[in-house]
Write a structure and sequence with these properties.
Strand content: 25-35%
CATH class of one domain: Alpha Beta
Shape: globular
Radius of gyration: 21 Å
Strand order of the largest sheet: 2-3-1-6
Oligomer: single chain
Helix content: 10-25%
CATH architecture of one domain: 2-Layer Sandwich
Number of helices: 2
Order of helices and strands: EHEEHEEE
Structural class: alpha+beta
Distance between the termini: 55 Å
Number of strands: 6
CATH topology of one domain: Alpha-Beta Plaits
């Protein structure tokens, strides 16, 4: 079972999380999510445990557990929604028309 783990200290490592969750049961994988531009941890991640029973026990025991000065948020991870498109930003992402005052003049005209 895959679990969401939030409010992770930026100094915590995947190994730190693995050791914590392995006190409850066998861990399949641990992943702390990082910012794709800076490489810095984003403060959340995912832990997958071998059995649903161990994952449920981890949720009940570790939700609110203080790790490196921060209380963890641990719950069942939700599946990514089908059809959900990733958010993108940047120029010309509004698909139609201009969104700014390109004609010149004062912005206070209304």
């Amino acid at each position: 079972m895959n679990m969401y783990v939030g409010n992770i200290s930026h100094s915590a490592s995947e190994e730190t999380l693995r050791e914590l969750f392995e006190k409850i049961g066998p861990v399949v994988s641990v992943k702390i999510i990082t910012d794709k531009f800076t490489g810095m941890p984003r403060g959340f991640g995912f832990v997958q445990m071998e059995t649903t029973e161990d994952a449920q026990k981890a949720i009940s025991e570790l939700n609110g557990y203080e790790l490196e000065g921060r209380k963890l948020v641990v719950n069942e991870a939700r599946e990514k929604e089908e059809g959900a498109r990733p958010r993108t930003g940047g120029y010309n992402n509004n698909r139609g028309g201009f969104s700014s005052n390109r004609g010149g003049g004062s912005r206070d005209r209304y």
